[in-house]
Amino acid sequence: MVRLIFIPLILLSSILISCSDSDSLEFSKLITHRKLKAAPPETKATINIDECEDYLVLMSAAKVAKQLSKSKAWVKENFQIPVFSDTTLDSRKVIGHALPGAHCFIIRYDSIWFYIQSPNSNELGWVNRDYVVGFIKKDPDTLLPCGG
C-alpha cells in the first residue's frame, strides 16, 4: 500500500520540478526554433510557431563611438557588448559578448533586461536594454528580415 502511494508522489514531484524550470522550457523552445529548418511541414504546423521570430537590434558601432568619444574603427577593434549570466548585481558576471549592431534572438525579457542568444557565440545570457536600439522580425529558415 505504501509503495502505491509513493509512486504517484514521485511522478507528481518530477512534473512540478520540470514545469517550474522556465529556463529549460525556454531553451527547449529555442532548440525547436533552430531545428524547424529540417523538420517536415506537418511538424511545423503542430508546433504552431510563427514564421517570423523576434530579434533585438543592438546599438551600432557608430553610436557606441559617439557615446564613448572614440572612433568607429576603435569601437570595431576594441568594444563588444557584454552578455551577463544574471540580472542581479551581486551575482552578475560577463559570460559572453555581442558585436555592436548585432541582431540577437530574444528568448524572453524582464523589465530592463533581455535574455538572448548571442549571434557570434550562441551563448545564452542577459543584455541590458541600454544597448538595444530596436527590434526586427526574421525568418527562422533564412534569417532574413520578414516583409510587412
Topology:
Blueprint: H1 2-20, H2 22-35, H3 41-47, E1 53-58, H4 61-68, H5 72-78, E2 81-84, E3 94-98, E4 103-110, E5 113-117, E6 124-128, E7 132-138
Helix pairs in contact: 4-5
Query: Segments where pLDDT lies below 50 for 5+ residues?
Result: 1-36
CATH fold-level topology of the largest domain:
SH3 type barrels
Number of domains: 2
Strand content: 25-35%
By CATH, the architecture of the largest domain is named Roll
Helix content: 25-40%
Taken from the alpha-carbon principal axes, the silhouette is globular
Summing up helix and strand content along with how strands pair, one would put the structural category as: alpha+beta
Describe this structure in words.
The chain is 37% helix and 27% strand. It contains five helices and seven strands, in the order αααβααββββββ. The strands form two sheets. Strands 6-5-4-1-7 form a five-stranded antiparallel β-sheet, covered by helices on one side. Strands 2-3 form a two-stranded antiparallel ribbon. The chain is an alpha+beta fold and 148 residues long. The chain has two domains: 1-49, no CATH class; 50-148, SH3 Domains (SH3 type barrels, Roll). The protein has helices at residues 2-20, 22-35, 41-47, 61-68, 72-78, and strands spanning 53-58, 81-84, 94-98, 103-110, 113-117, 124-128, 132-138.
